[in-house]
Amino acid sequence: METFIAIYIFMLAAFTGLEVISKVPAILHTPLMSGSNFIHGVVLVGAIIALGMAETNLEKTIGFFGVFLASGNAVGGYVVTERMLEMFKSKKENE
Is residue 33 within 8 Å of residue 87, measured between CB atoms? Predict the structure, then answer.
């Protein structure tokens, strides 16, 4: 029953996230990206904690991939945010 509840909560969170993000105007995407980078940092910390508590080789492998993907997601988010902010700078500032 716990697995069913976890899947149900995950599906509700995914649906809610999709509905919230689809209603955001384009002008707010850069601040939203910065906020989501913070969330990715929290996910990375959670993945590191899960990896630290892993006991079996399967748990360690899954934890490693979790840390790897979470760190890539966080770094990629900051790179994309930086590129988006570059688009708003004037030509004089870029030179």
Answer: no
Coil, strand or helix at 50: helix
> Contact at 8 Å (CB) between 33 and 80?
yes
Distance of CA 16 to the CA centre of its chain: 16
Distance of alpha carbon 12 from its chain centroid, rounded?
A: 17
Cα Rg of the chain, angstroms: 18
**CA–CA dist 20, 71 (Å, integer):** 24
Summarised one tens digit per residue, pLDDT across range 14-72 is 998 888 877 777 666 666 666 677 777 888 898 899 999 999 999 999 999 999 998 98
